[in-house]
Amino acid sequence: MGITFIDFPWAIALILLPLTGGLSCFLWPSVSKILGLVTVIGVMLSATGLGWLVIDKGVYHYLVGGWGAPLGIELYVDGLSLLMLMVTALVALGVSIYSIHYFELSYQRRFWPLWLFLLTALNALFLSADIFNLYVTLELMGLAAVALATLTGSHDAFTAAMRYLLATLLGSLAFLFGVVLLYHSFGSLDIAVLSERFESNITAWAAFGLISAGLVLKTALFPMHFWLPPAHANAPAPVSAVLSALVVKASFYILLRLWLEIFSQLDTDVDILFGFLGSIAIIWGSLQALRQTRIKLLVAYSTVAQVGYLFLAFPLAEKVGVTAWSAAVYLILSHALAKSAMFLAAGNLLRFGGHDRIADLDRVAQRLPITVAAFALAGVSIMGLPPSGGFISKWLLLQSALVQSQWGLVGVMLIGGVLAAAYIFKVLGRAFTQAPLPHEPGVVPATMEWAALLLAGGAILLGFFASEILAIIEIGSPFGAGEVKL
Amino acid sequence: MEALALLQDVFDILLGFGLLWLAWLALFSLDLFRSIVSFISFGLLMAIIWVRLDAPDVALAEAAIGAGLTGALFLAAFAKLQPASVNGKGSSINPQKQSSRKQLLRWLPALIMLWIASGLTIAILALPPHATGLTSEVTSNLTASGVSNPVTAVLLNFRGYDTLLEIVVLLLALLAVWSIGSSVPSIESEPGPVLDTLSRLLVPILIMVSAYLLWVGAHAPGGAFQAGAVLGAAGVLLVLSGWKLYPGLEGFPLRLVLTAGSITFVVIAILTMLVSGTFMQFPPAQASILILILEMVATLSIGVTLAALFIGSPPTDIKKL
C-alpha cells in the first residue's frame, strides 16, 4: 500500500477508533475495561500522529468520501483544532485510567460504551469543517453526556440530568435552526465556503442569534448556567471531569470557530454583551463556589466562573485579536486539565470519606497526600498562580485588558482571582485538620490518585511551554494575522 | 383549472390552521392523554403538509417517526406515569392560588418568546423564495452516487458520514434509556381478541411495506430510516400483543442486531479506505450494491432499536450485569 507513518489517516482513526471501541464495549461488556483502555491509548497515539503531521506540514484537510465541499463533508485541522484534540486525548487517558477502579462491575459495562461514544463525538466535533456535521456531533455529544450524568443512579442525578437534557436539546435545536437559515441563504454547509459567501442581512442576523444563543446555553454562560452545577455535581467523578473539562469547551469551540470565520463579518456589539455576561459569571460563579459546603458543587460553580473568563476574550479581541484569542485557547487547555484533575480528586475524597462535605474532611492531607497534591496543583492553575497554564492564560487576558485600558475587566479578573484563591483554600485548609466526628476511611486505589495527579501536573506543565503552544495555536492562523506577545 | 387552484388554497389554509390548533391542544390540554393524541394528529397533519410542499421523503419520515413512533413512545411513557400521577394528584398546586409575582414570571418568558418568534418570522419572510442550495451539484454527481433518488444519494453517499454518526445517535438513545430504565417494570397485559387478530394480519404487511420502502429508496422516496420505522412499528405491535424475544436471544444476539447497522457502516468505510484510499469513498461501479447492503442492515438495526426504545427497560440479560 505504501502508507508511511506520516500519511496514515490519523484524523479518521480519531473518529473510528473510539466509535469501534464503543460498539465493541457494548457487544462484549465483560472485557469492556480492557477494550476501553486500548481504545483510549490508540486515540492518544492518533492525536500524537496527527499533531506530528500538522506541526510538520501545516493545516490538514480531508475530504470525506472524496467529494469535497460544498457537496460533501470536509475535515479540517489547524492549530486550534489540533490543541483541542490533544487535550481531549490527554484528559480521556487520565479519566479512563481513573475509571478502571472507580466504577463497580455493573456500572463499568454501562460506562464504557457511553464514554467512548462521547469521545467519538468530541473528536468528530473538533475535526469537522461542516456546520450540519457539527450539529450531528453536538447531538451525539449531548445524548452521551446526559446518559453518563445519570450513572450515579441517585434521584438528584436524574433530576439534574433531565434539566441538562432539556437545556442541551434546546441549544441543539436553536443551533440547527441557525444552520438551516445559513444553508438556505448561502447554499453551503462548509465553513470556508460560507465565510466567502456570507453577507449581512436579516436572515444572517437571525442565524447568528440562534446559533450564538444555542451555543451559549450549551457552554453555560451566566445566566444560562442554571443546568450546569447540579448536572456536574451529581454525576460520577470521571463523568463530572469530562463534562467540565471537555463538553462545555466543545460548544465554546464551535462558537469561537463560527464567530471568527463567519460572524466576524457582522457589525455587532455582542462581544461587549459577552464580556459583560462573562464578568458577571466570574463574580457570581466564584461567590457561589465560595458559599458551597460540598466539594463537588464548589468545583462545579468554579466551572461557571472559569467559563466567564473565556467570554472576556470577545470584547478584548476587538483590538488585540490574536493575544486575547490565544489567551482563551490557553485557558481552555489549562482549565480542561486542571478541572478534570480537581473533579477526580474530589471523587477520591468522596470515596475516602463517604461524603464530600468540606467541613468534615478528616486529615486527608496526611492520609491521601497524592490526591490533595493533585487538588492543590489544579488549584494553582485555576487561581492563575505561576507557574501554570492558568497563569499564562490569565496573564495574557490581563495584558490585553491593560493595553486597552479596560479597567473594568482588569478589576473583574483580579477579584475573580482572589475569590478563586478563597474557595480553593477553603477546601485545602480543611484538608489538614481533624474532623469533629472521625469516620472509617474508604480505600482509594492508587490509580485513582495518580490519574488526578497526572492531569494536575499537566496543567502546571502547560506553564512551561508557553512559546511552543502559542506557536501551535498559530498554525493556519485561525485568528488572522498578528503576533502573540508574552 | 382556477377552481382547482382555489380549492387547493382553501385546503392549504385549512391545513395550516389545523396544524396550529392541534399544536395548541397538544401544548395546553390539561389532560396528558389528550395532549399525546393531539401530538400524533399534529404529526399526521404535518406529514400531509410536507406532501403539499413536495417533500415526500420528509413526509414519510414525519408520518412514520414523528407521528407514529414518537406517539407510541409518548403513550408508553404515559402508561408508566399512571400510578405516580394518581398519587400526586392531591398535592398539585391550584393555579388560581398563585401569587401575582408568579403570574408575572409566567408572562415574562412568554413575552420574550413572542419577541423572538416575531423576529424569526421576519427573518423567514426575508428568505429568498427559491433557494437552489446544492441541487445542481447533487444532480450532476447523481450518476456517480449509485442511486437515482437524490435524497438517498445525499444521505448514504455524499454525506454518508453524517448518517453513520446519526445511526450511532439512535443506538446511543437506546443506551441512554437502558442506563436509567432498569427500575421501571414492563407492563404485562393480555392482548384482546382485536389486537391479537390485527397484529397477525398487520405484522406481515408491515414487514412487506418496510422491505418495499427500503428497495424503492434507491430511486424514489423511501430508504432505511422510513423502512426501519415501519419495521419498528411491526415490532411495537408484536410487543403489544404479548410477543417476547426468546430468552436465549436477549444477550449477545440482540446487541449484535442493534449494532449491526453501525458495524456495517464502519466496516464498509474501512474497506473503501483500503480500496480507494479515502474514507467512505464508494467506487461508482460498486456504490449501488454497497448502499443497498448498508440500507438493509441499517433498516434492521433501526427497526429493532425503535422497538427496543418502545419497550424501554433493558432485557434481563443486561439488567443482571
Overall residue-averaged pLDDT value of chain B = 85
The number of distinct β-strands of chain B equals 0
Q: Which structural class matches the secondary elements of chain B?
A: mainly alpha
Indicate the overall shape of chain A: globular
Question: How are the secondary structure elements laid out?
Answer:
The complex is a heterodimer of chains A (486) and B (321).
Chain A: H1 10-27, H2 32-57, E1 60-64, E2 73-77, H3 79-102, H4 105-127, H5 131-149, H6 155-186, H7 191-197, H8 202-219, H9 228-234, H10 237-261, H11 270-291, H12 295-353, H13 364-367, H14 369-383, H15 389-403, H16 407-431, H17 446-461, H18 466-473
Antiparallel strand pairs in A: 1-2
Helix pairs in contact in A: 1-2, 1-4, 2-3, 2-4, 3-4, 3-10, 3-12, 3-17, 3-18, 4-5, 4-10, 5-6, 5-10, 6-8, 6-9, 8-10, 9-10, 9-12, 10-12, 11-12, 11-16, 12-14, 12-15, 12-16, 12-17, 14-16, 14-17, 15-16
Chain B: H1 2-28, H2 32-52, H3 56-88, H4 100-125, H5 135-145, H6 150-158, H7 160-181, H8 193-216, H9 224-240, H10 252-276, H11 284-311, H12 316-320
Helix pairs in contact in B: 1-2, 2-3, 3-9, 3-11, 5-6, 6-7, 7-10, 7-11, 8-9, 9-11, 10-11
Give a summary of the structure in a few sentences:
The complex is a heterodimer of chains A (about 475) and B (about 325). Chain A has about 475 residues and is mainly alpha-helical.
Characteristics:
heterodimer, A: 486 residues, mainly alpha, two-stranded antiparallel sheet, 18 helices, globular, B: 321 residues, 2 domains, 77% helix
Write up this protein.
The complex is a heterodimer of chains A (486) and B (321). Helix content of chain A is 75%, strand content 2%. With 486 residues, chain A is mainly alpha-helical. Chain A has a domain at 293-486. In chain A, a hairpin with an 8-residue loop joins strand 1 (60-64) and strand 2. The radius of gyration of chain A is 21 Å and the shape is globular. The model of chain A is unreliable at 482-486 (pLDDT under 50). Chain B is built from twelve helices and no strands. Mean pLDDT of chain B is 85; it is low at 86-95. Chains A and B meet through helix 1, strand 1, helix 4, helix 5 and helix 6 of A and helix 4, helix 5, helix 7 and helix 10 of B.
